Amino acid sequence: MCLVKAGTSVQAQLSFSHVKKVLEAVIHNLTLAHVVQAHCYTTRHQDIATIRAVWESMLRGPEEKKELLWESEIKLVPLLIAVVPALPKDAAVELHVTASNDDPSRRTSWDITTKAACGSIECHIVLSADRSSASLSLSLVPSGDVLGITDVKCITEEVSTMFMKATKMIEAELVPQCARVFYKCSPSPVQQIVQGLEESLRNCLGESSPSVALVPVLDLPNSQILHLSCWLSL
Hints:
- This protein is an alpha+beta fold.
- The chain is about 30% helix and about 30% strand.
- The chain contains five helices and nine strands; from the N terminus they run H-E-H-H-E-E-E-E-E-H-E-H-E-E.
- The chain has helices spanning about 10-25, 50-60, 60-70, 150-170, 190-205; strands at about 35-40, 80-85, 95-100, 110-115, 120-125, 135-140, 175-185, 210-215, 225-234.
- The strands form two sheets. The protein has a six-stranded mixed β-sheet with strand order 4-5-6-9-7-8, with helices on one face.
- Helix 1 packs parallel to helix 2 and helix 4 packs across helix 5.
- The chain starts with 7 loop residues before the first helix and ends with a strand.
- Residues about 70-75 have low confidence and may be disordered.
- Pfam families: Ribonuc_L-PSP (PF01042).
- InterPro entries: RutC-like_sf, YjgF/YER057c/UK114.
């Protein structure tokens, strides 16, 4: 497959369009409106706003609008955009999504923010309309200098506690299947938190502990230093 020689906006449109076609090929009525978890990789921080604008415009496309019975109060699917050193074939954009074949307009979602020792933990949950699957995202946002974090154990426990609290809020017989932990790779305290978090999940969930993929990145949006995305299903 040849990569088109074009700017970030064009590459983003093509990438998202290809994902849309793959969804339709898997199940004929799937659209981008059915996406419940989306991760995008780019190589330049300054392209984040452009990529997000393309994503939002495609979600408001004719098919997705019809599928969602679009109204202004319906929230867009959160798109995590991580900045990485490089992508295959020198691409500017790469997109990974998870979708559910349900009624997107009848999903349940929660947004929770709690204080942490170093700042705040932001949590977003989406439960599919048929309650057969859910996505859970946790973001750790420091209030000051990352290198000033000293109580790594406390912060690790706070993130783990929020994760367990969020899974219980879903109130469905769902099991964590897989998780990605995106984290800024330079500050050493963050790496310690990630290692502790992985161990904590194994201890708390036992055999139900999800497969965890650690993804070091150069940067995350909105001052995040760590972002955990987990997929749950029956």
